[in-house]
Amino acid sequence: MYTPVRNQINYNQFQLYGLISLRVLIGWHFLYEGISKITNSYWSSAAFLMESKWIFSGWTQIILTNPSAVAAVDFLNMWGLTAIGLGLICGCFARWAGIAGIILLGIYYLTNPPFLELEYSMPTEGSYMIVNKNLIEMCALYVLTVFPTSTIVGIDRLIFKNESKH
C-alpha cells in the first residue's frame, strides 16, 4: 500500500521547486480547460468524438448516437478536468489526481492519436508524429505520481500527517 509520508523522498531545493512548479502548471492547464468548457454553453465533446480515427472510433460512434451519453461525456470531461486541476494545484489527493489525469489524457490520445496515416478535419496546433502534448503531459504526470510533492507542499501534508508517526 502506498503511504505518502512514510515513503517520502528527500528532495533538494531545486528538485522540489521544479516538481512543484510542474505540478501547479499542469494543474493550471487542467483547471483552465475544465472551467473554459463549463463556462461555454456551446461546448460539447461531440466534435472531438466525431474525429476519432483509431481504436476508440467504434466506441465514440456509439456515444454520438445517444445524446444522453454525449451529455454524460461532456459532464465528466468538464468536471473531471476541473477536479484534476484543483487537486494538482492544491496538492489535495494529488497522486490520485495525477493518475486520473494520466487516464484522461490516455483516452484523448487513443481517441485521436497523432499518427501519420490518420487525417483529421480539425487543424492541430502543429505537426506531430506519435508524440503530442497529451503524451508529453501524461509522462509528466507519471513523474509527478512517482515523485510526489503534495505531502511536502500541499493539502496532502495535512491529510496524511498522522501516517508519518507510525
Main sheet overview: none
Q: How widely separated are the two ends?
A: 14 Å
Helix content: 55-70%
Report the oligomer.
single chain
Record field, number of beta strands: 0
Number of helices: 7
Total tally of structural domains? 1
Name the shape in a single word.
Answer: globular
* Radius of gyration of CA atoms, rounded to a whole number: 18 Å
Layout of SSEs?
Elements: H1 13-38, H2 46-50, H3 57-64, H4 67-90, H5 94-111, H6 133-146, H7 156-159
Structure summarized in a few sentences:
This protein has 166 residues and is mainly α. It is built from seven helices and no strands.
Description:
By secondary structure, the chain is mainly alpha-helical. It has one domain. The protein contains seven helices and no strands. It has helices spanning 13-38, 46-50, 57-64, 67-90, 94-111, 133-146, 156-159. Helix 4 packs across helix 5. The longest helix is centred in the first third of the chain and has 26 residues, at 13-38.
